[in-house]
Structures are given as C-alpha cells and as structure tokens.
C-alpha cells in the first residue's frame, strides 16, 4: 500500500451499518472541481448504487457544468436525530485510488473531504433520497 494514503477511508470497508447509515449519490456543487473545470468526458468518479448497495466506479460520459459533480451523501442517526454529511465523489478531489501489483484499483475517500455533519428534517431526508435529477447527467 502507498504511504500517501494515510487518512483515507477505503470503499471496500465503507458499507452502510444496517438502518444506522445510508448512502446516496446526488449532484452537488464543488468549488475545487469548478476551479479544475470538472467534470469532463472520461473523468472518473464513485457512485453509490441504489440497487447494488455498493460503491461503483463510473466515468463521465460528457463534459458537464464545471463544479456540478457527483457527491456522496452519508445519512445517519444520532441521539434520535437525522444527520447528513456530503463529499465530492470525483477522482482527484474527494476520492482517489491506487492500483495494486495486479492492476486492481482500490478507491478511497479522503476523510477531510466530508462536510461537517448537519441535522436535517424527515421531509428533507425524504426529498434527498427520492429526488432523481434526470435533467442533468454526468
């Protein structure tokens, strides 16, 4: 394993804990990606599969609007309240990978890329989970 990956959470170990955690991928704004003019065709990112319930490697199919990128939202409960954190899911921003000696990519999310947890209402949670923005595709 590479030494540069010291504060990364590997996606192989990042799985929802029963009903305590839930992940969803939605489009969000990222200033770092805006400055880097991402997403572009061929840019890699990670998305949480709603059917597979696993993180999947994806590739941008066309040039998107700079800064509007896939984000991973982690939803969890604590002290009877609903909380959410988000992080950009673009390679070279909130996520990255290294290839092992067999050429297998091991994706990870940089711990510091997560936003501060914020409390959300049940209505906002339902909107975040149910809303599928079919008008904007990466």
Range of helix content = 10-25%
Describe the oligomeric state of these chains in a short phrase.
single chain
- Domains counted in the coordinates: how many? 1
Structural class: mainly beta
Beta strand count: 9
Radius of gyration: 15 Å
Strand order of the largest sheet: 2-5-6-9
Separate helix tally: 2
Structure explained in plain terms:
The chain is mainly β and 138 residues long. The protein has one domain (8-130). The protein is 10% helix and 39% strand. The chain contains 2 helices and 9 strands. It has helices spanning 31-35, 122-130, and strands spanning 8-10, 21-29, 44-48, 55-59, 68-78, 81-88, 95-99, 105-110, 118-119. The chain has a 4-stranded antiparallel sheet with strand order 2-5-6-9. The protein is globular and about 45 Å long. Residues 1-7 have low confidence and may be disordered.
In short:
10% of the residues lie in helices and 39% in strands. The chain has 138 residues and is mainly beta.
List descriptors.
2 helices; mainly beta; 138 residues; 4-stranded antiparallel β-sheet
List the helices and strands and how they pair.
Elements: E1 8-10, E2 21-29, H1 31-35, E3 44-48, E4 55-59, E5 68-78, E6 81-88, E7 95-99, E8 105-110, E9 118-119, H2 122-130
Antiparallel strand pairs: 1-8, 2-5, 3-4, 5-6, 6-9, 7-8
């Amino acid at each position: 394993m590479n030494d540069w990956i010291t504060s990364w959470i590997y996606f192989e170990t990042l799985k929802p804990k029963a009903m305590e955690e839930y992940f969803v991928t939605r489009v969000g704004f990222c200033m770092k990606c805006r400055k880097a003019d991402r997403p572009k065709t061929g840019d890699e990112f990670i998305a949480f599969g709603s059917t597979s319930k696993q993180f999947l490697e994806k590739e941008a199919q066309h040039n998107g609007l700079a800064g509007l990128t896939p984000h991973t939202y982690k939803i969890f409960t604590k002290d009877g309240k609903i909380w959410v954190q988000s992080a950009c899911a673009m390679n070279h921003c909130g996520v990255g990978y290294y290839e092992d000696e067999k050429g297998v990519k091991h994706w990870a999310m940089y711990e510091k890329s997560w936003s501060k947890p914020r409390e959300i209402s049940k209505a906002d949670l339902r909107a975040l989970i149910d809303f599928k923005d079919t008008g904007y595709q990466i």
